Amino acid sequence: MRKFSQKHLLGIKEISTQDIELVFETADNFKSIINRPIKKVPSLRDVTIANIFFENSTRTRISFELAQKRLSADIINFSASSSSVSKGETLIDTVKNILAMKVDMVVMRHPAPGACQFLSRHIPASIVNAGDGTHEHPTQALLDAYSIRERLGSVKGKKIVIVGDITHSRVALSNIFCLQKLGAEVMVCGPSTLIPRHIESLGVKVETNLMKALEWCDVANMLRIQLERQDMKYFPSLREYSMLYGLDKERLDRLNKEIVVMHPGPINRGVEITSDVADSKHSIILDQVENGVAVRMAVMFLLAGQQA
Amino acid sequence: MMTERIILEKKQFQLTIDRLCYQLIENHNDFSETALVGMQPRGILLSRRIKARLEELTGIQNILYGELDIAFYRDDFRRGNELILPNELKIHFSMSNKKIVLIDDVLYTGRTIRSALDAITDFGRPDKVELLVLIDRLYSRQLPIQADYKGLTVDTRANDKVKVQWKEQHKKDVVYILPVQEK
């Protein structure tokens, strides 16, 4: 009998290739469900899920919420800005109080790397990491890989370049783990100040010239510059960054092949990607958003299904 | 030693399928308002066989056909030890105003069919839902559900397993009872 190997989804690092494939196969079913007139199934009707967001989020939060509603789960939303966290309550106390109200699963985003790991040692509920600082964002990586699989048929053997702020990006780290587990080759590309030292030790290629990276790849995943996490200046100006690392139509046209363009959102149009590229047929940005709901439904269905 | 008892095979098996098809023809005329729906995972081999045989017998080539998966509608989700995983679902039509013939291999507790009835309402409001099964296990129902078309009715003990094997998967069509030994 196949099963999901983990009780939580803390990061891609902890799960196996089989787990990832199980999520994808389950997500296929949910994708067909969210495309039919009645987009809801009763699977999780006796499951209560708390969405605890200590950091701002639009897409991820709406995506999780929609996924939970489509699974018929009961949900409570909690955001740090409007809560007792500002009164000095600790993370464990906050979550334990919420769990005392009989919650079965926690979806958490937190600015501190490892926050979900820490919490998982102290509470009995399943935890889904919706982004912990600069560490991991596993559901984003799963939906990215799922979208590549959907567009190109498979992830195995494909060449994927992740462009931008690698140092501050949890999406980059989760993507590297996920794509490698699925047999893809991964390259990171960006200004050397935004590429962590020793990242080659993860088995990724490093390139500082965007054009060379684009010529090498099948898929380019353009990341946002995370100004909110940057404590100092890593490059002279956004304008210069955009000139050297922004993906525009002219660069795409210079390639003598078609590549797939991805972006985890939110897009800074005109910085890492221009509007004409973001809205072109090469872009699967909106497919990523649609697949996000199906993949998150699959993750929560699999985690809920094993806790009897 | 476990001994399996064969209850249906060879010519009898084919005759049973034929009889079920003729019963369907009797009630559904030209099948213009009817949709056949096989139940994943084990009912689809029967439903594919029925569809093919019906097309042979009537010459109608476009009988509406779908395969339904009920994993998300089961009432034992999170209540057993095994993770329930979905199978592929292929319903590419609205069930509104149709006569649906649900097709499964074995009718036992009736819980699968209850889940299927739930699932069907998510695809529209059918005029009528009928149930066709190859094997009807007597005295084992946990819900008030009965089949409209039955291949064979058998009396089994609760622990027995009824196994249906198909030519497509096991090289021959056979149904047998596997008694579970008491300890």
Describe this structure in words.
The complex is a heterodimer of chains A (308) and B (183). Chain A is of the alpha/beta class and 308 residues long. Helices cover 39% and strands 15% of the residues of chain A. Chain A is globular, with a radius of gyration of 19 Å. The mean pLDDT of chain A is 92. Chain B is of the alpha/beta class. Chain B has a single domain, classed as 3-Layer(aba) Sandwich (Rossmann fold), CATH 3.40.50. Helices cover 27% and strands 28% of the residues of chain B. Chain B contains 4 helices and 8 strands; from the N terminus they run E-H-E-H-E-E-H-E-E-E-H-E. In chain B, the strands form 2 sheets. In chain B, strands 3-2-4-5-6 form a 5-stranded parallel beta sheet. At the A-B interface, helix 1 and helix 11 of A face loops of B.
The largest sheet of chain B has its strands arranged as: 3-2-4-5-6
Major pleated sheet of chain B: 5 strands, parallel
Oligomeric state: heterodimer
Number of helices of chain A: 11
Which two chains touch over the largest interface? A-B, 28 and 22 residues
CATH class of chain B: Alpha Beta
Strand content of chain A: 5-15%
CATH level-two architecture of chain B:
3-Layer(aba) Sandwich
Write the layout of secondary structure elements.
The complex is a heterodimer of chains A (308) and B (183).
Chain A: H1 17-34, E1 48-53, H2 59-70, E2 74-79, H3 91-100, E3 105-110, H4 115-120, E4 126-132, H5 138-152, E5 159-163, H6 170-181, E6 185-189, E7 205-207, H7 210-216, E8 219-222, H8 238-245, H9 249-254, E9 260-262, H10 275-278, H11 285-306
Parallel strand pairs in A: 1-2, 1-3, 3-4, 5-6, 5-8, 6-7, 8-9
Helix pairs in contact in A: 1-11, 2-11, 5-6, 5-11
Chain B: E1 5-9, H1 10-28, E2 34-39, H2 43-58, E3 64-68, E4 99-107, H3 111-121, E5 128-137, E6 149-154, E7 161-165, H4 167-170, E8 174-178
Parallel strand pairs in B: 2-3, 2-4, 4-5, 5-6
Antiparallel strand pairs in B: 1-8, 7-8
Helix pairs in contact in B: 1-2
